[in-house]
Amino acid sequence: TRTPLMAGNWKMNLNHLEAIAHVQKLAFALADKDYDAVEVAVLPPFTDLRSVQTLVDGDKLKIVYGAQDISAEDSGAYTGEISGPMLAKLKCTYVAVGHSERRQYHGESDELCNAKVKAAFRNGITPILCVGEGLDVRKAGEQVPYTLAQLDGGLKDVPAEQAESIVIAYEPVWAIGTGEVATPEDAQEVCGAIRGRLAELYSQELADKVRIQYGGSVKSGNVAAIMAQPDVDGALVGGAALDTEEFVKIVRFRD
Ligand code: 13P
């Protein structure tokens, strides 16, 4: 009963003109079928969001969109930051929080991610909280406790009324942009553990509602096997989301 969420994280790719062309192509390719059964989202760079909003609103496209990051603060002297109220004004449905590239290149801690999760909820935006271990941790077999610690940190003091709508993205860092995809069993192991922890932190009922995505070298050729896992409810797609045809195939993983 969880609607799969197939989301394209464009990272720092596609300017606003390219974004319009891409979203139009995507909408056209998905228009011949009823896609209510799968939710399709794009996460473009900030500078593209207004263009994407205009297109989606104007043409009533069945695509939702969101941002790749959010400030923990709602306004003030934070040069270069983008606030929750700004993203809400652009009608963003989602915002990625704590992507591994933010954690790695911008030093984002679990504490900051927690503040960003709260900022998203405070502004009516659904956070996609990204968690996942690096290669060293995986080699040491510590992927489950490591990832669950990130989950605990990101959800600290987040009430059940909010947590029930969060999306968790399990993205093992060693599988991002490397072509090294986790096996469906690897994805299930950690996604299952995440759901188990949500049940411990809140309730089984809440855990059963939350969508857990897998991310890391998802392609049209491997998406179906990953989506077949019981605790994988979607994909967060990087590189393959930049290629419209490939992303459409990923969205249509059931075909
Ligand atoms: P790739 O699909 O390029 O491996 O990226 C995954 C990712 O980081 C999505 O957020």
Explain what you see.
This protein has one domain: Aldolase class I (TIM Barrel, Alpha-Beta Barrel), CATH 3.20.20. Helix 1 packs parallel to helix 2 (49-59), helix 1 crosses helix 12 (244-251) and helix 7 (143-155) crosses helix 9. It has an eight-stranded parallel barrel, surrounded by five helices. It is globular. It has helices spanning 16-30, 49-59, 84-89, 100-105, 110-122, 135-139, 143-155, 160-163, 184-201, 204-209, 223-227, 244-251; strands spanning 5-9, 39-43, 64-67, 94-97, 126-131, 167-170, 211-215, 234-237. It is built from twelve helices and eight strands. The longest helix is centred in the C-terminal third of the chain and has 18 residues, at 184-201. The protein has 255 residues and is an alpha/beta fold. Bound molecules: 1,3-dihydroxyacetonephosphate (13P). 1,3-dihydroxyacetonephosphate (13P) is lined by residues 9, 99, 171, 176-177, 215-218, 236-240.
Count of helix runs:
12
What is the first-to-last residue Cα distance?
A: 19 Å
- Class by SSE composition: alpha/beta
- Write down the domain tally: 1
Strand order in the sheet with the most strands: 1-2-3-4-5-6-7-8
Q: In CATH, what is the class?
A: Alpha Beta
| Inertia-based shape | globular
Mean pLDDT: 96
* Uncertain residue ranges: none
CATH topology: TIM Barrel
